[in-house]
Specification:
By secondary structure, this protein is α/β, with parallel strands linked by helices. The chain folds into two domains: 286 residues, Aminopeptidase (3-Layer(aba) Sandwich); 132 residues, Alpha-Beta Plaits (2-Layer Sandwich). Helices cover 33% and strands 23% of the residues. The protein has ten helices and 16 strands. The strands form four sheets. Strands 1-2-6-3-7-15 form a six-stranded mixed sheet. The protein has a four-stranded antiparallel sheet with strand order 10-11-9-12, covered by helices on one side. It has a three-stranded antiparallel sheet with strand order 4-5-16. A hairpin with a 2-residue loop joins strand 4 and strand 5.
């Protein structure tokens, strides 16, 4: 792309700073909280109407029958596609429209899109309505500048990323929307800082462990068998035998922060005993205790071995501890994934960061998962990266925000990268 064309593109995006702010605020104004999946349809239709005005063919895909989908909360995704004037690749920007619950501690209205001190505040400002807005403005600027654009531009607003993506990218990938031949390059505007290119993420295994006992009167615990004590033995064995092993494992994936370059296990929740009634606990020895574990998996690890490691620990307790009985149930799993840092999307985005931000980009992997997992594993589309405005540490927190300067700069990076990819120059 010539220097003059780049300057015109960047100047146009600078002129549209106010429009970018307003679009981000409008997207924040849709309270697309997941769960349960509020306001998905009006938010998707808002995006679709806007892109239709720029010549995009718009489709709405209802992920019928996916988790949470019902009459009140339909899982509606929007996909907008615009073919250029000549043959070429398809560049797809995928943004999720759902946000997590607001929680407590806000000092501003979470859905007002408050602009203050160079920032836009609101639930989803960082994760990831700011990034979605920046990708839309970036693509519109490319179109409006009248530059030659071979190939195809595509933008999607998808649902349920915060709960696994089953009503969104997972559903679409299963039906060919992210298949090679239809799409060539994908950029997901997740909030991972404007000078970073994210090429993948760790894997995850969630499981529920249940220990069993025998109920008895609480005044005579010797007549029963306490399931909570059995779970304590599980935790003790995790502390003694598993946590040190996990801490010693390091990945070659460039995961940030550095602590996430080890394998990790989080005890997500524990529930044991009978529920309180009228504010008082039941006078019983608990016969069941359930614990959910969140095991983050490195690309060097086998998911089969990760699971076997926990099961072997439980089996050893069953052999050694009197009365110990357990069940373990898989809840959710995702394999680690990592794109080629020298692939077209990563290379083109990195070059744009150098030009716009003026510093060498950092190639990273995310500690948690995002929708790249479905595009890679189901869609079999390898050239997928994450790049967008926002600071990952701010996501999901009260008073979540995105910096306006980062929004503008990320839009410039995405616009430059998209044009480079369309021309096969990345």
């Amino acid at each position: 792309m010539s220097g003059d064309a780049l300057e015109k593109l960047f100047n146009l995006l600078d002129e549209r700073r106010g429009e970018l702010i307003e679009l981000t605020r409008e997207l924040i104004g849709f309270p697309t909280v997941n769960p349960p999946g509020e306001a998905y349809q009006p938010c998707a239709e808002f995006i679709g109407r806007r892109l239709a005005k720029r010549g995009f063919a718009v489709e709405y895909v209802h992920a019928a029958g996916t988790p949470g989908d019902d009459e009140r909360h339909p899982r509606i995704n929007v996909i907008a596609r615009r073919d250029g004037g000549a043959r070429g690749p398809c560049v797809h920007f995928n943004g999720h429209i759902d946000v997590v619950q607001t929680g407590a501690g806000w000092t501003v209205d979470p859905f007002a899109g408050v602009v203050k001190d160079g920032r836009i505040y609101g639930r989803g400002a960082c994760d990831m309505k700011g990034g979605l807005a920046a990708s839309i403005i970036a693509v519109e600027a490319l179109i409006d500048l009248g530059l030659s654009l071979p190939g195809t531009l595509e933008i999607s607003g998808t649902v349920d990323e915060e709960s696994g993506g089953y009503g969104g990218v997972h559903y679409l990938a299963q039906r060919g929307w992210f298949s090679p031949g239809r799409v060539d390059h994908v950029i997901i505007p997740e909030p991972l800082n404007v000078d970073r290119v994210c090429i993948g993420h760790r894997g995850v295994w969630w499981a529920e462990i249940e220990t069993r006992g025998r109920m008895a009167h609480g005044s005579m615990p010797f007549m029963g068998d306490c399931a909570v004590r059995h779970m304590n033995a599980v935790i003790d064995r995790l502390e003694r035998d598993l946590y040190p092993k996990l801490a010693a494992r390091r990945t070659d994936m460039p995961v940030v922060p550095s602590g996430a370059r080890c394998a990790t296990l989080n005890i997500n929740s524990i529930h044991g005993g009978a529920a309180e009634s009228s504010g008082y606990p039941a006078p019983c020895v608990p016969d069941s205790c359930r614990m959910v574990i969140d095991r983050r998996v490195l690309i060097e690890e086998s998911m089969h071995r990760v699971k076997a490691e926990v099961r072997e620990l439980l089996e050893s307790l069953a052999q050694e501890r009197s009365g110990f009985a357990y069940q373990i149930r898989d809840i959710f799993e995702v394999q680690p994934t990592m794109a080629d840092r020298n692939g077209p999307a990563a290379r083109g985005t990195a070059a744009a960061i150098r030009r716009v931000i003026g510093r060498e980009p950092e190639f990273i992997c995310s500690p948690g998962t995002y929708d790249q997992k479905h595009i890679d594993r189901i869609g079999k589309l390898r050239d997928c990266i994450a790049y967008g405005p926002g600071i990952l540490d701010i996501a999901h927190q009260p008073d979540e925000y995105v910096r306006i300067d980062d929004l503008v700069n990320s839009a410039k990076v995405m616009a430059m990268a998209a044009r480079s990819l369309l021309h096969g120059a990345a």
